[in-house]
Amino acid sequence: MKFSQDFLWGGSIAAHQTEGAFDQDGKGLGIMDLLTSGSYLRPREITKEIESGKRYPSHEGIDFYHRYKEDIRLFADMGFKALRISIDWSRIFPNGDDVQPNQQGIQFYSDLVDELLKYGIEPIVTLYHFEMPMAIVEKYDTWKNRATIDLYLRFCQVMGEALKGRVKYWITFNEMNHIDPKTEVSDIFTYILAGLKNSEIEEPQKTLAVISYNMTLASVKAVKLLHDLDPKNEVGCVFGLTPSYPKTCQPENMLKSFQDTLQEFYQIDAMVGGRFPKYKLFEYQKMGITLDYLDENQPAFAEGKIDFIGLNYYMSAVSTIKERSDQEGAFFGGELNPYLEKSEWGWSIDSVGLRYLLNFVYHKYHLPIMICENGLGAEDIPSKDGTINDDYRIDYLQKHLSELKKAIFEDGVECFGYLMWGPIDLISATTGEMKKRYGFIYVNKHDDGSGDLSRVPKKSYYWYRDMISTQGVNL
Ligand code: BG6
C-alpha cells in the first residue's frame, strides 16, 4: 500500500527556534528573545531584559534567516512536499501597534515562501508559534486584553495579503491548548504562549481562563479573516495533544483517563463546533470564574470554523486516581507508561499512541488532520568520519509512520500530511538546548556557543528521502 501522490510529506520548524537575526532588519524584541538556555534538569530562565553574560539561544538560532536557501535546497533534495514555517510577529510589528508594518520583515517571509515554491514545496504558515512582540505584553497586558486580539488580526491581515495566492494552508496558533486554568502549568508554558510567568499571575485561574478564551476568539476571528481574504485559503489550528491511558481497568481509572485526555480539547470543540463549549463554561462557573461578552462574541465562533485540525504528537501518558505514586511523572502530567521506552529527555515513545490519537480526533470531529509535529529529540554524536548514524531516529519514524499508515489505510482516518519536527536541528523550545536534536540535518552548533553552523545530512535524511520517493510502500 502506498500513500497518495499528493500526501504532504515534509517537516515543521518555528521562527524563534531557527531564524536568529533577532535584532536585524527592524525586528522587535519577542517574548522568546528573553528566554535563556537551560537543560533537561535546569529550567530556562525568563529575564525581564537581555542580561549580559547569559545565553539567549533565539538570538542566533541556527541562522536560518541567512541560510534558508541552503536549508530549503536540502529539504527539496529530500523530496519534501511541504514545510511548515512560522512568521515571527515581532518581525512584522516590532512594537506590536506600529502604524505601518516592517517592510523588511514582510520581504523576508515573501522571499522565503518564493524559495519554497521554486522547489514545489507547499508553504504551511503558522501565525503564532510563541512569537509575540514583547511590547504587547508590556503595553497591552498580553492576551488578557481584548485589544491584543485586534493587534493579532491586523498582523494576520497584513501577512494574509502579502502572501495571498502563494500560501494556501494557514495555521492560526500553535498549541494554545497548554493554557488551561484547570491544568497545573509551569512558568514556561504560560510564558511561551502569553509572555507571563504562571507563578507571578494574580488570580491565576481566572486570568488563564480569560487568556485562553481570548486566544480562542482570536483564532476563530482569524479563520474568518483569512477565508474572506481568499476563499481558497484552508485554515487550521494546531494542538499538542497527549492521549492518556488508564493505569488499570478499574472504572474510575478509565473515567480519569478519558477526562485527562479530553482536558485540553475544549478549544478544538469551540473551533469546530462554532461555539465556546457549555461544559467549559460550567467548569469555570464551578471555579467561580465568569467570562464577559460571551453573547456578543458568539457570531465570531459560528463564522470562524476551522477547515482542518493540526496535531502535534510526541507522547502518551497514564492516568490513575491514586494520589501518590512511585512512578516517575510524565511531561504533561500523569504517569510514565512502564510498557514504553522513553527518550533521553524523559518523553515516552509510543507509536501506537499516534494511531490511537488520530482515530480519537477523527472520530470526534470528522475533519481532515494534518500531523504538524512528531519527532525524537536525541543527542547525536558524529562518528570520527563525520557521519551521523541516527538509527534510533529511523526506528522512531519507521514505527510512527507505520502506525500512521494503519490509521489511514486500515481505520479510514483522513490525514493529508505528515510534518516531522524539526527536520533540521534547531533550538529546543522547552530547554533551549541544541543538544536535544530532532533533525534529518545536523547543524554544527553546540550549547557552549561553539560550532560553525555547517549542515550535514544524517543517516535518517536518506531514509526519509527514500520513504517519500517510494510513497511509504515499505512502512
Ligand atoms: C512542540 C512545540 O510542543 O514541541 C515546538 O510546538 C517544540 O516548538 C516541540 O520544539 C518539541 O519540544 P522541545 O522542547 O523538545 O523543543
From TrEMBL:
- Keywords, comma-separated and alphabetical: Glycosidase, Hydrolase
Q: Which InterPro entries match?
A: GH (IPR017853), GH_1_N_CS (IPR033132), Glyco_hydro_1 (IPR001360)
Q: Which PROSITE patterns match?
A: GLYCOSYL_HYDROL_F1_2 (PS00653)
The Gene Ontology biological process terms listed for this entry are: carbohydrate catabolic process
User: One GO CC term of this entry?
Assistant: cytosol
The positions making up the signal sequence are none
Q: Name one GO molecular function term.
A: beta-glucosidase activity
| Record-stated family | Belongs to the glycosyl hydrolase 1 family.
> What name appears for this protein in its UniProt entry?
6-phospho-beta-glucosidase
According to its UniProt entry, this protein's organism is Enterococcus florum
